[in-house]
Design a protein that fits this description.
The complex is a heterodimer of chains A (400) and B (116). By secondary structure, chain A is α+β, with helices and mostly antiparallel strands. Helices cover 38% and strands 15% of the residues of chain A. Chain B is mainly alpha-helical and 116 residues long. In chain B, helix 3 crosses helix 5. Classes of the chains: A alpha+beta (400), B mainly alpha (116).
Amino acid sequence: MLQEAVLASSNTCYWGAYTFDLLDTVRAAGWLTYKYRFILDSLNDCVGLHCALEMFNIILPDSRFASRRGYLSSMFVTIQQFEKTEPKDSIYAILGLLDKDTSLESSHAELLKVDYAKTLSSVLRDATRYSLCQRGDLDALSQILHRSDVIADCQSFPTWAIRADLQRGAWDASYLPSYFDASGGLEAPSLLDDISLGAEVLLLQGIVVDEISQTTAPCLESISHSYEEFHEWLISVRDIVLCHCDVTSQEELFPATAFALVAGRGWDGGRTQSCKLQVLLDYLKSLTLNENDQDVDGVTITKCSDLANMKRIFDTSRTDYCIDRRFFVTGSGRVGIGPRCMQPEDIVVVLRGGKWPFILRKKGDGYWLLGAAYVHGIMDGEAVQSHKALGGSEEVFHVR
Amino acid sequence: MRLSDRPRVLWIDAICIDQSSTTERSAQVAFMATVYSTAKHNLIYLGEDDDDMAEIATKALGDVMDDMRAATADFTLMWQTIYNKDTGAHLFSNEPFSASVDYEALEALYNHHWFR
């Protein structure tokens, strides 16, 4: 259906005795979204409208967006909006939309060959490998954000295969901003197309940076929608931060925590600055003080003002990256947010071609890829520099 | 979809591809992009009008189009109105629709299975 809308020169919709141009319904989706403040909520929530909006975005002439059709990794984002009657069509039904000029040489093109006799797992696995080889970086892996229930399925799907067949929910964790460069200083990956250990094994090169020592419970959608529950969740954040720092490092760790909670992003979509996070920072610090107050008075006197402040936090900082993620502290005292399935002893790695650090879990003689993470202080290649300064070498991770 | 004055020949993907044969499906799906991009005209069957919504929805769609046309100089300013030119961020309007629009009918339109 996407292909029809985008590729055909004209499309007429038939509904009973009435006909209209498909282009009108696609443009209307763009306009209704533009004016979403004035339309019915139930229309706003309509999946078909969101899908029509994806079509609208794809037909955008602006080169910035048209590039979406250049890379399979960005088309994954589009197709996850749609329902699929045949899961393999999550890949096969969009091949015609990929710009031909960026197609890879024939050995890689074979990965995308339409073949319904292949299993779904191998279709997704090969498409993911294609998308990695096509860009020569790990951008596509930003879409790997395992929850505990999905990781249980790793028997049938490699953990690094993008589940383009699943429909994304409105409150699934949003993808981290793309302006980071955690692997700055490392070379480009050279083993993405290496299947010498089998097609299920992805060879990723990079360095181990850290180990997870403690995480909070995941910040579920319901938590983020309630001031009280988000307040409770922030207390759990505060607790594990305090648990892993002394009074002197506290001065640095609280600002780092504020950055981590917004994944370094400001309201304007660009990188945020400390001054913009003051409300959140003050709040985190006040949580610390409140406990001391309570110790003295034995009563909670600050609860109401907390809730008022909470509203200010929602108004001034984008904490939505926390949704569907966990907050964590590492062995070296770094803080960050990462995939829901992560747990203590998972490792933080920086990988060639990766804009973000990733969380891996040791499994047998290889690793599972759990997902990308925001780890404050190593988003711009700092970990690579200090690793090199210490004369450390790179490893090859066998990810299954 | 019948023409009033002459026969019409249609190729219909759901019917003309033997869905039970993986070999035929594989070959045909790989060929689909060529079919769509070279077809003179594509017809999309959304469904029957059992709830008598099609007429109201067609009118509502026209109302949205009129509003959009007026605000974007006949669609020529469509992209810069809806997206920030520099950042590509989606923009949102503070202007209500100039005429009333039947949103429920539009919901029925986008609820068609074809759109999902």
